[in-house]
Write a structure and sequence with these properties.
The chain is an alpha/beta fold. It is built from 9 helices and 15 strands. About 30% of the residues lie in helices and about 25% in strands. The strands form 3 sheets. Strands 3, 4, 5, 6, 7, 14 and 15 form a 7-stranded mixed beta sheet that branches. α2 packs across α8. The two termini are about 20 Å apart.
Length: about 325
């Protein structure tokens, strides 16, 4: 048994419900890996979980330890675990990430290659796996496709834009400031639209010669989803994979009829539930980094003890790139 600092919340609410506690961590059970984390991912999904909003989170009794991804060093392995060994650098996807030392089922853990540091993996793994299924499985991006990426300067947007560009797509990104426009242009976007100053629908149609894009990748939700449908070409797909501005509300399906449009509200969980798919997705992401198609970065680094400030910054869209919590 070892003591570990952790972050819990006992009720849903604003960032001030997050509180620091020390918990007892037992030795890893059969099929588990004990990881001493060096980087913990900070994602908008953590905000949804803390607020108690809609999402793919399973009902969990309070207190809740938020977060779902991290990286670090294997401290010990439980009986039956042969794929990992103490001292090995690993990353994982599994609920309950906001603590320093934790036990994780081995089938949710992936070994890190030499070219992916623990801090990069902790900040970017969930985003990288999300980009993999969005670009390679949910819709297969092909050379010549035009795609629209909302929040292109965010942690997800940077990976999506770079990878889509490497796949041969023309990438149009939306951002909220001139500074973020520069970031997006440096990370795969061919065209950038400042949605605070420009009509993103008109500009998207202008960039595509009036044809529209093959797919819209929307992590913003309520504020942009319906206008985004006007950006699609016939038989185009609008993917709402996040709701930073609020949930997309009910709308008239007849809006889709004239151009035979499709919409989708996926979650990463469905695409990596199978351990084989998890490892294949991670390998594709790691290979994209190795081959120079995706350059990873870290935005703001927050001590785990400053998690309330980290959540406030993420909610107010004050972060750029992939922020991370450092235990």
């Amino acid at each position: 048994m070892t003591k570990s600092p952790s972050i819990h919340f006992h009720r849903h609410g604003e960032a001030d419900v997050l509180e620091a506690v020390d918990i007892d961590v037992p030795a890893p059970a059969a099929g588990e890996v004990q990881i001493r984390q060096t980087a913990i991912g900070l994602n908008f999904a953590d905000i949804y979980q803390r607020r108690g909003g809609h999402g793919p989170h399973a009902a969990t009794p309070f207190p809740v330890t938020p977060g779902a991804q991290g990286a670090g060093v294997v401290e010990a392995v439980g009986p039956g675990v042969t794929a990992f060994a103490p001292g090995q650098s690993v990353a994982y996807l599994h609920p309950g990430a906001y603590q320093v030392t934790r036990n994780v089922p081995a089938h949710r853990v992936v070994a890190l290659p030499s070219w992916i540091g623990e801090d990069m993996a902790g900040a970017n793994l969930l985003r990288g796996l999300t980009a993999e299924y969005l670009l390679r499985r949910l819709y297969v991006v092909k050379p010549g496709d035009a795609v629209l990426v909302h929040a292109a300067a965010g942690g997800m947007g940077l990976i999506l834009s770079q990878w889509a560009c490497a796949l041969g797509a023309t990438v149009i990104g939306t951002v909220g400031s001139a500074a973020k426009a520069e970031v997006a242009l440096a990370h795969g976007c061919h065209h950038v639209i400042d949605y605070r100053r420009e009509d993103f629908v008109a500009r998207t149609l202008e960039f595509t010669g009036g044809v529209g894009v093959a797919v819209v990748y929307d992590a913003v939700g309520k504020d942009v989803f319906l206008p985004s449908l006007q950006c699609l070409r016939p038989r185009g797909l609008a993917v709402n994979y996040g709701t930073a501005s609020g949930d997309v509300e009910a709308f008239d399906l007849q809006i889709l009829h004239a151009k035979s449009l499709s919409v989708c509200r996926p979650t990463l969980r469905s695409f990596v539930a199978d351990p084989v798919e998890l490892r294949a997705s991670a390998q594709a992401f790691f290979d994209a980094v190795r081959d120079g198609h995706v350059k990873l970065g870290i935005g703001q680094r927050y001590p785990l003890a400053e998690v309330q400030r980290a959540h406030c910054d993420l909610e107010s869209r004050a972060t750029t790139g992939a922020p991370v919590l450092i235990p």
